[in-house]
Amino acid sequence: MANRPALFTDRREAGRRLAELLERFRDEKPLVIALPRGGVPVGFEVAAALAAPLDILLVRKLGAPFRPEYGIGAIAEGGIRFVHERDVELMGIGERELEALVAEESAELERRQLLYRGESEALPVEGRTAILVDDGIATGGTAVAAGEALRARGAARVVLAVPVAPPGTEERLAQAFDEVVCLEQPHGFFGIGQFYVDFGQLEDAEVIALLKAAHRRCAPADNPAAGADPHPVERPVEIELTSGPRLAGDLRLPAQPAGLVVFAHGSGSSRLSPRNRQVAEALNGSGFATLLFDLLTPEEELDRANVFDIGLLAERLLAVTAWVGAEAQLGDLPIGYFGASTGAAAALRAAARLGDGVRAVVSRGGRPDLAAESLEAVVAPTLLIVGGADLQVLELNEAAARLLRCEHEVAVVPGATHLFEEPGAMERVAELAAEWFFRHLHL
After folding, report:
1. How far from chain centre, in Å, is Cα 79?
2. Residues 191 and 253 both lie in one domain
């Protein structure tokens, strides 16, 4: 059993897989509550997939004296204390010894609370569904203490969600939670780490970075600590290329952008595309800067061959990306591409040239088949969004996806046609794009 294959590459991959089981909670607008440290990367991915705020709940295991790896209970924020009385009695742990242990762990809990939260308050859970996430469960003591803390704060429902736990965990903890969701309950369970390829201990700095990234993503209405700028600065820009014409663009820049998304519009469109602008505004609300620009000058557009010249369009996008890198306010920001129709082909061809210089690509109703010769060279994680009723383009995207060697997904918006004109269709596109960029541009 010790040589059994690992189930997960790392915590973030486990979080993405766990999120698939939790999709049914999306309409409840839940809060995702992660247990630091190991639960934070898992919760980060779950929160991204559900478009939910992410917070932490600090819990400290009470390890038995002389055998600290064995949990005899736990303490949690809010003065919650959970002790396995039978274990304490069997191990002969006296009251004074137990209280000293509680005092030691309480001091560490307070230290981490100040480190991770600073002056920020915990997100209010009263009346909400709280999804409590960790990287796995061994005995369940810390999870139970965390669940009690959430109930004490008024959570309407508490759902425990973990990638892996010993067999029978769902039944064993059923009384402590409204629901227990576990991806895997393998036999031969000796420890959580045996089921991960990478189970390295997280540093405090990594936890803080993930929490800040998650906070920037959430709208202020859901997360007062988010810091997202509801009124980003918008200004027209004139992009002067080193070789070629000047291109008109519109830059929207939040106060503390998490990244920059450069848009490549489709044939017959421009930087004024209402659909692209709707997506851009949603990304601005999630803390991203956006740049919409005209790939062609008005004179160039008169020649319809230019509109479908993917090589030319990709060169323009590369030139604009170089311009971004030279701008003082933009040069240090991670870059993502959002392409529509033929613009998606240009984005993928440019991404293939830039390697990891582009951190993520999103295609809306795109024609990735027009960049088929470049697809295998794309390394940026790529999301292909297609309308469920856009059957021909859906088939082209599925074929293109088979050529991609990078991390990629095909997301189908049910009932949507090529222009996503159906009620709610563009809103779903914006949501999917924000989730993808949130996942890949922050870290």
Report:
1. 31
2. no
